[in-house]
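hey so i finally got around to running the thing on that chain from the lab meeting. sorry it took forever, my laptop kept dying and i had to restart like 3 times. anyway pasting the input first so we r on the same page abt which one it is
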Amino acid sequence: MYKFLLCWRYLRTRYIALASIVSVMLGVATMIVVNSVMSGFTTEMQTRLHGILSDLVIEVRDMNGARDAEAHMEWIRRAAGDSIEAMTPTVTTYAMLRFYHGGQWFTRQVQLTGIDMGTQSGVSDFSKYLQHPENRRQMSFNLREGGYDPRDHQAGPAAVERPQMLNAGWEHRRHVATARALLPPFSDRDPGRSPSPGGSEGRTIPLNPFDAYRRAPEAALDMSRQQNTGLVMGIALANYRDHGEERFVLLPGDDVELIFPTAGERPTATFQYYTVVDFYECKMSEYDSTLVFVPIEALQKDRHMIDPATGKGTFNLIQIKLKPGTDGAEVRDRLQAAFPRDRYVVQTWRDRQGPLLAAVEMETAILNVLLFLIIAVSGFGILAIFFMIVVEKTRDIGILKSLGASGPGVMGIFLSYGLSLGLVGSGVGLGLGLLFVKHINGIADVLGRLTGRPIFDPKIYYFYKIPAIVDPWTVAWIVLGAVGIAVLASVLPALRAALLHPVEALRYE
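ok and heres what got predicted. didnt touch it at all, straight out
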């Protein structure tokens, strides 16, 4: 009993122990906050990546693809048994996107993907990231009569306004058609030269998109009533940020030109006009700034990927959604065994994003090691304090031993003292860390007002609040690790106190 009484007395009266408690508390709180935020960001990123990619992907190694997607999907069902919930074929290729804005043409490199709008939403969260509510319910490559979200529907009340989207759709297309009709006939003017007032040749001016229509008769159509093949593009391809505000250079209803290679042994470039019908925004800049989606049948036709004899098109990928609870790695191995490795590659979504996920895990591990050093430093502080206490209390230790206290009993006093410091510091740090995580967005807003600039700017991070997820197992290991370090730091001083000889201790000055 005397061991606990002495521990409590030392804990209450020796204010030098407060420094150790504070250091343990700050270390535990910091690790809880950082791990919660990192876990939130990682989970958010993985959710969005998984929403873009299906559970499994079978990729054809040949750039020209493979024929008969239906037959391949039947082979997949036979090999995977009842593990398959949904499948869809896709065609992917790289392309150049061209559009006209502000008096000049812009060109962007994009990844062009042909999808089946009837089955694509069944294997991924594709429709979830579209900007028209009807397209989120039932995807269509037909231009809508208005109704596009004038604000980011994923952001909730904190969403930034997008007033340009109010005019998107057929209203915007009819407005463009009216402006086009007001231009003089193409034959009445030189599209490449602008005459000067004196009659001599003036400066060279860029062609506008309406001249391009006149030079491409097959693309000419009544814009007020007709559209080209529909296209869904990443929203970052169509907008830019000016002093934190979003400005759109393209809207649903505009026409763009895609340049991409045909399939076959000797590919040639083909030029096709498409009409933007919606935007895709998954909050991953890598995808929002590169992905373009068109109907798979149109892309197969434009790339000459349809067999004239059978009428069946070729494909590059088959995306597979598995039933809940299915082991993706096990199904992957079964499918890879069923398909020749020299022609097909079977991967899970984690396999396809392996380098990115590995980099995030490595950053988290290194950050945890660095932060754990804070608690380790507090452990050395406890070690130094306990050695001071042993030296200071040498005579008291001698009196305890002369009164019958055993060596293990004296050692237990200091070990209990170290355990008490660890428990108190970890407990306070646990409460402080959890409280900080709970109100982290409010704290960020307060700090932003104090500093005059936002701590977490959603215009930069594309998240409207700081994601934080508290993992109970991680918190438990942090608390146990802090308590363990405090106890280990008290072992050497406790051992020295236990080995003191009573007579030598009483003679100590």
